[in-house]
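Regression report. Comparing outputs from two consecutive submissions.

Submission 1:
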Amino acid sequence: MQEENYLPLSGIQHFVFCRRQWALIHLEQQWAENLRTTEGELLHKNAHDAEQRTLRGDLLTVRAMRVHSARLGLSGECDVVEFRRSPDGVPLSGEKGLWLPYPVEYKRGRAKLTACDEAQLCAQALCLEEMLCCSVPEGALFYGQPRRRQEVTFTRSLRTLVEDAAREMHQLFQRGYTPKCKPTKGCNACSLKDLCLPRLAKAPSVADYLRGELREP
């Protein structure tokens, strides 16, 4: 896929959480701030505050690393990529030995019930694999509330989820189509709930209303 047609990698998280949320943000360019989004931005800024590249023993840490995938048609930025010295790794410019990438994504709050965060991290891993010609078997999500990491293994099913989501995102983007939504408990935590108005999805259409009114008793 041509670079000018790449979609934001971060959209994978929105898309897996709610296709309508993704479309409102990435198609209709709508956004709304709330406490959760503000806390998330602060956590990401803290992750990027330190120097871009630090080496401590067998651990090389790179922050705000740009990644992309022509196969998926995605591009974005990893919060942190830890390169660990490993015989299964790849050579890096300016460094001795072989290094295996390990992406780390920072999130506010706690782990979610859906796989949206895992999918975003896996998308980063797929980009790294394509760029560096190596295998990236796992990474980690760092959640701000418990302040600890949750390791994520990039299984075949998770990789398929990302690949299918990327394909569908491009299809919807080309059509310029915003899907309808089915309200869930997750809508209450969505920063776009006042813009999305999920309750309207439950309302009958005008045509159905008129048919009901005109129906003979």
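Submission 2:
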Amino acid sequence: MKNKILAAIAVAVLSLSFLAGCGPKINESQPESYDVNLNVDKNTEATLSVMVPMGDGGLEANYVEALAEGFKELFPKVTVKLDYRDISDNTYVASINAAIASGNPPDLFYTNTGFYYYLISKNCIVSLEPYYKAAKDAGVLNLEADYYTSFFSMSECDGKRYVVPRSMDSVVTYYNTDILAAAGIDPKTDARFNNEFTWEQFNSLLEDVNTYLTSAQAKTDGYADCYALDPCFDWEAVYNPIMQSFGANIFDENGNIAVESENMTEMATMINAISKKGRIIKPYSSSYNFKAGKCAFFFSSYGPTKMNEELAVRGKFDALPFPLIGENGKIGCGFAGWGISSNSSATQRDLAWQFLNYMISKEGQMTLINKGLATPSIRIDLAEEKKWSKGFENLNLDAWLVSEDKKICTDYFTKFDPSKMFGIQNAVQNFMKNISDFSKNNSVAYFIGSFKSDLEAAIA
């Protein structure tokens, strides 16, 4: 089952820079094929530049620096240099354009489930198929046997993969054990807590928590200001699997807007209905979130080590899988990783591949884990052995690993030019915020109509 995730090309939030529709290209065209050298001279002298975010508290930089230490043992005369860039939803495109315009772009471009499509559109990164084929033929890399291969395929475009993921991200359902205990819910004995977790079971839990939070006892216990769910409904890794579970498409196969459908209405009505019930859904304007200890449930791709950094919930959480909706239930997922610059020389390109190959090796993955990377490894052996969650063996770690064949990421953006992406994403996010905001009294039909109008403006 490990190789059957039906993951499509993932394209998500890009920036307002898209609206200019401009920006330089690193090359005018992509090479159809190129020669690769898997046997790079160990004494090669070179500097390998790796793009890392400058606004994440040094997280990715620490990972790359840790990898660089191990890589130094393989190639002692290669220096790994960090290329810091401002990387966020609103700055990624500008940062990439600046890197291209500088004439000295990095050898390895940092990207994720959303951003990689822009790199391909600017011919910034090369297809990695020549390396995958050569490594497989040489017997030095067996993706199908050793890895969750679909996380590699999430960067696919026209049948070619462009990014090597450093880890895999899967959305799970965190829960606050203290709030549930106060509500009289015991995960150890409650049959609703299982790894085939369904939306029906989840909705039943939300109802029970809501009953408690609106009671006099909750006020006595100090939980009257809490909510049942911190949903992140405007996050594509949450709304996309929900929409797809209902068969609610945003565009049809020809790129026509398809939101005025029974399936979209059913999905929107479901979310809108639960938003109207007491204290189930946290308002978007509220800081009373799960990490502050103010919500019973939370959709997130955090690993347990990362979640345990939040003081208000430290030692007070566990996880379930994302709740499956109906027979076609889906789970959101994604990746972060690097693609190789199409501007690099053949030698630099081969060294870049060697760095990525080391990153996904058992030693490289353990280096990342030991440096604090707390999401499941893309290596099957390390993921299933729970090496990524040392110290949290008492938690339901399988929540991150089950139902792999149901994990998906977005693909509807690829029907349009990259200049349309920000507008499309903004339209979807506004729609999800509207239908889940209990302070708004408009009908679902009204929200869908507004959604359609926003999409029409976005793709015009």
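Expected: both submissions complete independently.
Actual: both completed, but the second showed a warning that disappeared on reload.
Relevant detail on submission 2: The mean pLDDT is 90.
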